[in-house]
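This section describes the prediction task in plain terms. A model, or a person checking by hand, is given the sequence of a single protein chain and must write out its three-dimensional structure as a string of tokens. No templates, partner chains or ligands are provided. The sample shown here is typical of the held-out split.
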Amino acid sequence: DTEDSDIDAKAIVLPTLNDMIMRRNLVSEIIDMSDGKCDVKDIRLVMDAIKNHSLNDVEILFTPYYYIREDKADILKPLQTYREDIARCNIRAGVNQMYERARKYYTKIQKAGAHNKELIEKYGYNPKCVAHVLRLYDMIYAYCKGFSYGKNLVADNLLDVKKGVFSCEEATDMAKEAFSKMQAFKNRWIEENEFTVMIRHIETDYYYRGGGTIRTIENLLDAVAMNAIRHDIARNMAIKLSDCMPIDVKMYTDTLYETM
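The expected answer:
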């Protein structure tokens, strides 16, 4: 990153017992901060996104910058312990996600918008988009060859690209060549691996609280979410008998009619 980079954060939240009883929508919203944005999501949505290999969600498993509530550390630990396996639980989806992300950035290299108007006016192109295309080009090759997912997220060699050191012609030519090669590689890989089994089996001593066997990465992700939610609900439940008494139905209905 450069000194001009925004700080994009993610906050994973747990539903309350009332949220589930009342069937409230799962939390998913973007909060604007002074130096960036924070993506707030229910843990169940995050686990589903990781299963589908959403790059933004898979990459949080590898960041060195995070805070985990102390009472949830052991429950969430498998996300780090098995992160390389998790990143490959659906390799075909991973390949498609990397390609689609690169295509998105490639189409925006010289497309002016409210968020990149200054960059287009200054350089004639968006250096950040070029850097992303080149990074994903390197990443998809390494991913399919089985190299460490975490190490491939680091792209210090592209800092000059992000800073706009190259001319518009040089930068757009680099991006065009990289994206063209990436497209050909992706199509060839998908064709050659059409019948590859994607959901990887795993051996772990982690378990579902309440019973259940973990045999795949998908099971593991489900177990982490379920265990975190169960633990949080149990921790927050009141144990006083008065808090467990039935609702006064007459008082509730009288209040309801008064407000109608």
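For orientation: The longest helix spans residues 168-192.
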